[in-house]
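Why does residue order matter? Because the sequence determines the fold. Keep that principle in mind as you read this record.
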Amino acid sequence: MASSPTDIGTARTAAPSSYANLEAREVVKYYSLTSYEVTEKEAFVLKKGEELTVFVYNSGFPITYTVYDADGQALGTYNTNTPYGRIFTAQKNGPLYVQFKAGANSSFVKKMNFSAKFAIS
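Structure:
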Protein backbone atom coordinates (compact mmCIF):
# COMPACT_ATOMS: atom_id res chain seq x y z
CA MET A 1 0.00 0.00 0.00
CA ALA A 2 1.43 3.37 -0.94
CA SER A 3 1.45 6.27 1.44
CA SER A 4 0.21 9.68 0.46
CA PRO A 5 2.68 11.74 -1.59
CA THR A 6 5.39 13.47 0.36
CA ASP A 7 5.31 17.22 -0.01
CA ILE A 8 8.85 18.40 -0.38
CA GLY A 9 8.94 22.10 0.40
CA THR A 10 11.11 24.53 -1.47
CA ALA A 11 14.42 25.41 0.16
CA ARG A 12 16.13 28.47 -1.25
CA THR A 13 19.79 29.14 -0.79
CA ALA A 14 21.90 32.16 -1.62
CA ALA A 15 23.31 31.69 -5.11
CA PRO A 16 24.65 33.81 -7.95
CA SER A 17 21.92 35.50 -9.99
CA SER A 18 22.59 33.12 -12.89
CA TYR A 19 21.24 30.34 -10.66
CA ALA A 20 18.30 32.33 -9.33
CA ASN A 21 15.68 30.04 -10.92
CA LEU A 22 17.11 26.83 -9.44
CA GLU A 23 15.36 25.57 -6.33
CA ALA A 24 16.29 22.58 -4.24
CA ARG A 25 13.35 20.68 -2.78
CA GLU A 26 14.39 18.26 -0.10
CA VAL A 27 13.22 16.51 3.04
CA VAL A 28 14.90 14.28 5.62
CA LYS A 29 12.86 11.44 7.10
CA TYR A 30 13.71 9.28 10.11
CA TYR A 31 12.98 5.56 10.37
CA SER A 32 13.16 2.91 13.08
CA LEU A 33 12.70 -0.70 11.97
CA THR A 34 12.93 -4.12 13.59
CA SER A 35 14.27 -7.19 11.80
CA TYR A 36 12.39 -7.94 8.56
CA GLU A 37 10.10 -4.92 8.94
CA VAL A 38 9.04 -3.12 5.74
CA THR A 39 7.93 0.51 5.48
CA GLU A 40 5.00 1.72 3.44
CA LYS A 41 5.93 3.07 0.03
CA GLU A 42 6.85 6.77 0.14
CA ALA A 43 5.47 8.57 -2.94
CA PHE A 44 7.37 11.49 -4.48
CA VAL A 45 5.45 13.15 -7.32
CA LEU A 46 7.71 14.26 -10.16
CA LYS A 47 7.30 15.71 -13.61
CA LYS A 48 8.86 13.91 -16.55
CA GLY A 49 12.62 14.52 -16.52
CA GLU A 50 12.82 15.57 -12.86
CA GLU A 51 15.24 13.69 -10.66
CA LEU A 52 14.81 12.14 -7.22
CA THR A 53 18.02 11.74 -5.23
CA VAL A 54 17.97 9.26 -2.35
CA PHE A 55 20.77 9.41 0.23
CA VAL A 56 20.55 7.17 3.30
CA TYR A 57 22.47 7.79 6.52
CA ASN A 58 22.91 4.28 7.94
CA SER A 59 25.20 3.01 10.71
CA GLY A 60 25.77 -0.43 9.25
CA PHE A 61 22.33 -1.91 9.75
CA PRO A 62 21.10 -4.46 7.14
CA ILE A 63 18.68 -2.09 5.40
CA THR A 64 17.81 -2.04 1.69
CA TYR A 65 15.42 0.09 -0.32
CA THR A 66 13.50 -0.50 -3.52
CA VAL A 67 12.50 2.27 -5.92
CA TYR A 68 9.34 1.87 -8.03
CA ASP A 69 8.27 3.90 -11.05
CA ALA A 70 4.87 5.51 -11.59
CA ASP A 71 3.52 2.20 -12.93
CA GLY A 72 4.61 0.31 -9.80
CA GLN A 73 7.47 -1.49 -11.57
CA ALA A 74 10.63 -1.96 -9.46
CA LEU A 75 13.58 0.00 -10.82
CA GLY A 76 15.95 -1.78 -8.45
CA THR A 77 16.81 -2.67 -4.87
CA TYR A 78 19.80 -0.96 -3.28
CA ASN A 79 21.97 -1.41 -0.20
CA THR A 80 21.99 1.57 2.16
CA ASN A 81 25.59 1.08 3.31
CA THR A 82 27.04 3.27 0.57
CA PRO A 83 28.77 6.64 0.93
CA TYR A 84 26.78 8.17 -1.94
CA GLY A 85 23.21 8.84 -2.99
CA ARG A 86 21.43 7.46 -6.02
CA ILE A 87 19.59 9.52 -8.63
CA PHE A 88 16.40 8.37 -10.34
CA THR A 89 14.89 10.23 -13.30
CA ALA A 90 11.12 10.27 -13.85
CA GLN A 91 10.25 8.84 -17.28
CA LYS A 92 6.76 10.38 -17.12
CA ASN A 93 4.64 12.58 -14.86
CA GLY A 94 3.71 10.80 -11.66
CA PRO A 95 5.16 9.41 -8.49
CA LEU A 96 8.34 7.49 -7.81
CA TYR A 97 8.00 5.27 -4.74
CA VAL A 98 10.67 4.36 -2.19
CA GLN A 99 10.25 1.47 0.25
CA PHE A 100 12.73 0.38 2.94
CA LYS A 101 13.19 -3.16 4.26
CA ALA A 102 15.21 -4.32 7.24
CA GLY A 103 17.13 -7.56 7.19
CA ALA A 104 18.02 -9.71 10.19
CA ASN A 105 19.63 -7.79 13.02
CA SER A 106 21.62 -10.23 15.15
CA SER A 107 23.08 -7.57 17.44
CA PHE A 108 21.67 -6.60 20.81
CA VAL A 109 20.04 -3.54 19.24
CA LYS A 110 16.33 -4.21 18.77
CA LYS A 111 15.57 -1.16 16.61
CA MET A 112 17.55 -0.10 13.56
CA ASN A 113 17.46 3.67 13.32
CA PHE A 114 18.46 5.55 10.19
CA SER A 115 17.52 8.60 8.18
CA ALA A 116 17.10 9.28 4.50
CA LYS A 117 17.33 12.51 2.58
CA PHE A 118 15.13 12.86 -0.51
CA ALA A 119 15.74 15.70 -2.95
CA ILE A 120 13.89 16.59 -6.14
CA SER A 121 15.62 18.63 -8.83
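Residues 9-21 have pLDDT under 50 and may be disordered.
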